[in-house]
């Protein structure tokens, strides 16, 4: 029974991008490098994670505008303010923008097919454009997932003997 639990827990920690696509990817190629010269990296496959800023349906498919975030061991975007920039991901099939909505987290494996310049406020921003090979939409995080403990010091508490661990003191 213990072995079964261990195997199931390992399956739950597996990366979300298929092995086939992962084998094609240049895992060490960062968005920061590609932003300097997207055309130089055309044809390369990358795996990037981030938060959706916008989903727009076009005649070519659904275009996702994504704010890149560093990924954890499962390829899920980390809950952080750190980012290397933005990228566009074109999924050839129709995705519902109500589901692939602003603020949702995604992991995208895609082939770099060029760049696209779009307005961002008062400036023009050049985005690397990926053609999606594999896409994973993450479940929304529960509100308490952002806090490690319910209150300061948990699981320790302060008694008249000082800081103690657990509730049995």
- Main beta sheet: 5 strands, mixed, barrel
**Which regions are unreliable across 5 or more consecutive residues at pLDDT < 50?**
5-10
List the secondary-structure elements in sequence, H or E.
HHHEEEEEEE
The gyration radius over C-alpha positions equals 20 Å
Instruction: Classify the helix fraction into a percent range.
Output: 10-25%
Number of strands: 7
Shape: globular
Strand order of the largest sheet: 1-2-3-5-4
The percentage of residues in β strands lies in: 35-45%
Structural class by secondary-structure content: mainly beta
How would you portray this structure in words?
There is one protein chain. This protein is mainly beta. The protein is built from three helices and seven strands. Strand 6 (156-159) and strand 7 form a beta hairpin. The longest helix is centred in the N-terminal third of the chain and has 11 residues, at 2-12. It is globular and about 35 Å long. The model is unreliable at 5-10 (pLDDT under 50).
Set out the fold topology:
Elements: H1 2-12, H2 19-24, H3 31-36, E1 45-58, E2 61-69, E3 86-91, E4 105-120, E5 123-137, E6 156-159, E7 162-165
